[in-house]
């Protein structure tokens, strides 16, 4: 029995080692390809003189000014999507980061549009939009699907180090944030996380309806 247990543990270690080696090889190939091609993306943030840039040549981040005459004000990999919101001098959006092992993470952040001070609203979370009553809806405490959390051994290892994330469960926390104050006003659990019809469950209803 002990020999069988030892063999199984050894097999798991071997599988994990080869998974790490394969991930490092993939990340290395990606880095080589990233430098081989020039990529540049420019997204204007409506209602402001700010824009989001992603580039393999210049620094990625938030820029102030016109497209051809601007300056970097906040460095980082930010996403411009329906969750991006500007309200009362606050810019709410998603910020992405990458681990050495190739995992992709997302944090929901808020940036002061005058001082450009950045604050993390929720780690391992993504702004998805605004519900019918205007609150920002944030889906958090999960690993993004691009990481293949159901099958990726690295995601399982990460889950062991986090008390709030279980990659295999598909469970997530849905938080509602007041865009005027930046304060959390309500949160609840979602057993389906990002799967299924998230918009219908959370964005198409008012906060009052969600509370019921």
Furnish the topology, listing elements before pairings:
Blueprint: H1 2-36, E1 40-44, E2 50-55, E3 61-66, E4 69-75, E5 77-79, E6 85-87, E7 90-98, E8 104-112, E9 118-122, E10 125-130, E11 136-140, H2 153-161, E12 172-177, E13 184-190, H3 198-203, H4 207-211
Antiparallel strand pairs: 1-2, 2-3, 3-4, 5-7, 6-7, 7-8, 8-9, 10-11, 11-12, 12-13
Order of helices and strands: HEEEEEEEEEEEHEEHH
Beta-strand residue percentage:
35-45%
Radius of gyration: 20 Å
- What is the CA-CA span between the terminal residues? 53 Å
Notes on the structure:
This protein is α+β, with helices and mostly antiparallel strands and 212 residues long. It is 26% helix and 36% strand. The protein is built from 4 helices and 13 strands. The strands form 3 sheets. Strands 5, 6, 7, 8 and 9 form a 5-stranded antiparallel sheet that branches. A 4-stranded antiparallel sheet has the order 1-2-3-4, with no helix packed on it. The longest helix has 35 residues, at 2-36. The mean pLDDT is 82.
Overview features:
about 210 residues, 4 helices, five-stranded antiparallel β-sheet, four-stranded antiparallel β-sheet, alpha+beta
Briefly characterize the structure.
The chain has 212 residues and is of the alpha+beta class. The protein has helices at residues 2-36, 153-161, 198-203, 207-211; strands at 40-44, 50-55, 61-66, 69-75, 77-79, 85-87, 90-98, 104-112, 118-122, 125-130, 136-140, 172-177, 184-190.
């Amino acid at each position: 029995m002990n020999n069988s247990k030892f063999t199984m543990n050894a097999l798991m270690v071997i599988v994990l080692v080869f998974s790490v080696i394969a991930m490092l090889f993939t990340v290395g190939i990606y880095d080589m390809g990233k430098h081989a091609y020039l990529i540049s993306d420019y997204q204007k943030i409506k209602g402001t003189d700010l824009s989001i840039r992603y580039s393999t040549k210049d620094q990625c981040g938030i820029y102030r000014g016109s497209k051809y005459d601007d300056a970097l004000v906040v460095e980082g990999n930010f996403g411009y999507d329906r969750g991006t919101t500007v309200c009362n001098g606050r810019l709410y959006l998603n910020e992405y980061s990458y681990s050495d092992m190739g995992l992709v993470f997302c944090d929901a952040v808020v940036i002061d549009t005058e001082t450009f001070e950045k604050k993390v609203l929720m780690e391992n979370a993504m702004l998805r939009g605004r519900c019918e009553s205007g609150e920002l809806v944030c889906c958090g405490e999960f690993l993004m699907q691009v990481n293949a959390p159901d099958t990726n051994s690295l995601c399982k290892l990460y889950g062991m180090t986090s008390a709030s994330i279980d990659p295999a469960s598909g469970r997530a926390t849905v938080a509602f944030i007041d865009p005027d104050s930046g304060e959390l006003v309500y949160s609840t659990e979602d057993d389906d996380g990002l799967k299924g019809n998230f918009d219908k469950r959370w964005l198409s209803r008012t906060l009052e309806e969600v509370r019921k």
